[in-house]
Structures are given as structure tokens and as C-alpha cells.
């Protein structure tokens, strides 16, 4: 069966974030990728200047209607969501996902709210995301977004409580990225995961710098390997050869 994903994310002309980050990795993993852009910006919004449009609810609805009326939606095996510029458009995406949810369709929601203790979006997107993650199979918040959704800042001491709250919304699989843990003078990034309540984590070396689009690539790659199971989807174990494992 052909693997086909509807990728509902941002688009920029200059740079690589959103659908420009997600499309190629998924294509290389054998997916047909249909990008549906939520915004059309000249460049990502962390630049001092950016121009373009955040599509409104009617714009997004028109695109969905074209897919529905042409009976394309039944072809999708996966759907993934990322950054959305307007709360009204996010609500339209939520309504669409509710109607399309069915057996055989995997829904991955990256609740793009912000990072580094700063919101990228308006506060009125938060309650919509709490509804949206309820219909997701997998969610991939970063540590700040997990804190916004759960009300608790993730740490090694309370991570099970955070997962319990996030699972209570509905998703069976949760990956929390970019949780910072200190060990003496060193800081590590920790990725925490929960597969139906079974917890695991991986330490990631912290590289100084500011990198954009990494979360979009990460969510796409996890989706692309999800058929191998959540643990192997986020780790590189399934890519190792027998010689490498010796």
C-alpha cells in the first residue's frame, strides 16, 4: 500500500522550516507527501523582518474542500500538523482531523506553541491544541510546549506526572523534546517518550547555537519510522547494521 501523508504546516520562501523541512525526509522514506501550507512567509518569523500571509479559516477550508470533493482524503495513511499562524485556521484544521479520523489513519500533532519560555503564537491557540491532541496518535511537544499543555515544567522528578496528564487528553504516544537537564557544569538535552505509559528517554549532546526547523524534521522522521514502533522511531537502532551492533 502506498504511504501518503498530508502535511499541514508552514511554508517559507527563504530558509528551511515547516513543510520545506518535512517534505524531503518523508519522500526519502518512501512517502508521497502532499504539503498543505498554513502560512506563506518570505522567511521564518525569527528574522527581524518577514512578510507574507497567514491563511485564514476560509482559505484552509477551501483547500480541505478540494481534497474532500475530489475524494483524495481516503488515500491518506498519515496526517501531520505543525505551525499555524491563526487560531481560526487551527480550529478549521482540528475540525477537519475530527471528521477524517478513522482506522488506518495515523495522526501526528506537533503542537507548535513556542520554545525557550516564549510563545510563537497567540494564547487562543492553546485550548484548541488541547482539543487537537485528544485525537492524535502521537504528539511531539518540546519541553516548553509540554509545560503549557500539562501545567507542569517537565523534569526527571516529575516526568511521569507530566505524561499522565498528557495521556489523559487522549494520545497513546508522546515524545517530549528539548528538556534541559544539568549534570554539574554540563547541560544535556533529554528526549522523554511514553508509549502507552511505558517511559523511556535518550540523552542528546547540547550544541550551542540557534537552529530552526529541527522540530519539523524530527516529527517528520518519527512519523516516517513509526511503523517500527515508537522507541525505534526516535532512536537510530533500526538503522544500524549487524556489524555496527557488534
Molecular structure report:
34% of the residues lie in helices and 26% in strands. The protein has a nine-stranded mixed β-sheet, sandwiched between helices. A two-stranded antiparallel ribbon has the order 6-7. The model is unreliable at 237-246 (pLDDT under 50). The radius of gyration is 18 Å and the shape is globular. With 246 residues, the chain is α/β, with parallel strands linked by helices. It has a single domain (4-245), classed as Ribokinase (UDP-N-acetylmuramoyl-L-alanine:D-glutamate ligase, 3-Layer(aba) Sandwich), CATH 3.40.1190.
Name the descriptors:
single chain; 246 residues; alpha/beta; UDP-N-acetylmuramoyl-L-alanine:D-glutamate ligase; 9-stranded mixed beta sheet; two-stranded antiparallel sheet; 11 strands; 26% strand; globular; disordered C terminus
Outline the secondary-structure elements.
Layout: E1 4-12, H1 19-28, E2 32-41, E3 52-54, H2 57-69, E4 78-81, H3 87-100, E5 106-109, E6 114-115, E7 118-119, H4 126-132, E8 138-139, H5 143-150, H6 159-169, E9 173-183, E10 186-195, E11 198-205, H7 214-225, H8 230-234, H9 242-245
Parallel strand pairs: 1-2, 1-4, 4-5, 5-8, 8-9
Antiparallel strand pairs: 2-3, 6-7, 9-10, 10-11
Amino acid at each position: 500500500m502506498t504511504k501518503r501523508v498530508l502535511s499541514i504546516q508552514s511554508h517559507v520562501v527563504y530558509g528551511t522550516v515547516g513543510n520545506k523541512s518535512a517534505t524531503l525526509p518523508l519522500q526519502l522514506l518512501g512517502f508521497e507527501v502532499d504539503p498543505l501550507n498554513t502560512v506563506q512567509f518570505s522567511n521564518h518569523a525569527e528574522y527581524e523582518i518577514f512578510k507574507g500571509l497567514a491563511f485564514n479559516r476560509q482559505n484552509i477550508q477551501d483547500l480541505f474542500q478540494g481534497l474532500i470533493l475530489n475524494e483524495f482524503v481516503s488515500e491518506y495513511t498519515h496526517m501531520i500538523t505543525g505551525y499555524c499562524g491563526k487560531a481560526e485556521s487551527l480550529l478549521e484544521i482540528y475540525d477537519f482531523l475530527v471528521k477524517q479520523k478513522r482506522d488506518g489513519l495515523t495522526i501526528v500533532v506537533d503542537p507548535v506553541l513556542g520554545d525557550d519560555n516564549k510563545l510563537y503564537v497567540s494564547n487562543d491557540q492553546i485550548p484548541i491544541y488541547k482539543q487537537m491532541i485528544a485525537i492524535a496518535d502521537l504528539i511531539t511537544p518540546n519541553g516548553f510546549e509540554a509545560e503549557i499543555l500539562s501545567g507542569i515544567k517537565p523534569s526527571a522528578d516529575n516526568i511521569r506526572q507530566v505524561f499522565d496528564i498528557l495521556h489523559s487528553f487522549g494520545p497513546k504516544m508522546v515524545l517530549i523534546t528539548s528538556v534541559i537537564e544539568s549534570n554539574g557544569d554540563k547541560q544535556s538535552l533529554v528526549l522523554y517518550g511514553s508509549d502507552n505509559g511505558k517511559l523511556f528517554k535518550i540523552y542528546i549532546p547540547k550544541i550551542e547555537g540557534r537552529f530552526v526547523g529541527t522540530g519539523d524534521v524530527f516529527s517528520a522522521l518519527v512519523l516516517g519510522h513509526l511503523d517500527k514502533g515508537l522507541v525505534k522511531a526516535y532512536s537510530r537502532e533500526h538503522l544500524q547494521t549487524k556489524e555496527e551492533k557488534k
